[in-house]
Design brief:
Rossmann fold, about 180 residues, single chain, alpha/beta
Length: about 180
Amino acid sequence: MDYKIPDRIFVPVGDGVIISGVYKGFEDLFNLGIIEKMPVVVAVQSEGSSNLINNINSSDFQIIKSTTIADSISVDIPRNFYMAKDFILKYKGELLSVSDSAILEASKNLSKSTGMFAEPAAAAAYAGFLHYYSNNKIEKESKNVVLLTGSGLKDLKSVNEVIKMPKSIQPTINSLAELIKS
């Protein structure tokens, strides 16, 4: 069989549940002989909530209070830490933290260039991809996947500062005409 898998997958990480599921799925495909290699999985966390990155090589878990605009990946104690850690170490995954400003810029860029409106937590994965791309870590012919895990409608408060929300009007022709004139 000639199944094509991505070379690299960028995954936003908070609790470690999604990245563990990604690894488990590809591991099952690998163990069944359906794919010949594992993709490189890049765990992307916010700099303000990077307890997986901070503790990956530690035997004594240190809790660091999370403060980030990316609410869905803001986690003090990742509930799936050990499974995520084991997969990352076993398959030589990569780890990256990105700033809140990079996350917001990625969310804005993603919305404008693709029409996909991702919440900041999901946009963290795209910020990770952009970081790799701008640092020439993406090979020209490589296949890369960015996992967007949540809609921007889930966390409007966080993206209001970078994305101008449309004005709400009454559902009438006159209201529309007034808006267009203004």
